[in-house]
Design a protein that fits this description.
Blueprint: E1 4-14, E2 19-24, H1 29-32, E3 38-42, E4 50-60, E5 63-68, H2 74-77, E6 84-88, H3 102-105, E7 109-111, E8 117-125, E9 132-136, E10 142-146, E11 152-156, E12 161-164
Parallel strand pairs: 7-12
Antiparallel strand pairs: 1-2, 1-6, 2-5, 3-4, 3-6, 4-5, 7-8, 8-9, 9-10, 11-12
């Protein structure tokens, strides 16, 4: 059975020429939305995904705008509003050492340098210069941990564990 990974959500159409507005959930938008790449649209009421080929990609405001081969007007893509864009596991490329996919990091348990459990990573934010990990603590609070060398000391995705250095003011 194929394992699928979410790379974005189609939130609306854009203009009349078949462009869709996507909130991206991929680590590598430029590569993922490259012209000719195959993506799969998962509609809530459909059993099988719709395979599409990227015709164009551009960024507008905080959205990725995509068009697909053979879908040249708004009527062709209107039905995709609210659908998820996914790729199969075999389309995930190999990463360099020290690089990780979001799905490898989300769910990892974070420990400080004294092996005290701080919580689990539930989300990754990409606001700018570096990613920020949202860690949910046992008491339901959220910690924001910047993914920078001074803080993140060790990542073990097989064991789903991360060790961090707690700098002053972090917690």
């Amino acid at each position: 059975m194929e394992k699928w990974f979410n790379v974005g959500k189609i939130v609306n159409t854009h203009g009349i020429r078949g462009e869709v507005r996507v909130i991206s959930r991929t680590d590598f938008a430029e590569e993922r939305y490259e012209i000719g790449n195959k993506l799969y649209i998962f509609l809530p009421d459909e059993k099988e995904p719709t395979e599409v080929s990227v015709k164009s990609h551009r960024v507008h405001k905080n959205f990725d705008l995509l068009t697909f081969e053979g879908m040249n007007n708004v009527n062709d893509v209107e039905k995709f509003k609210g659908a998820l864009l996914k790729v199969p596991e075999h389309q995930l490329g190999d990463l360099d050492e020290g690089e990780y996919y979001f799905h490898e990091i989300i769910g990892c348990v974070v420990y400080d340098e004294n092996d005290n459990e701080l919580g689990a990573i539930k989300e990754i934010l990409t606001p700018g210069a570096n990613d920020v990990w949202v860690v949910k603590t046992k008491d339901g609070k959220e910690l924001l941990i910047p993914y920078i060398e001074d803080i993140v000391q060790e990542i073990n995705v097989k064991e789903k564990q991360v060790k961090i250095h707690v700098m002053e003011g972090l917690l």
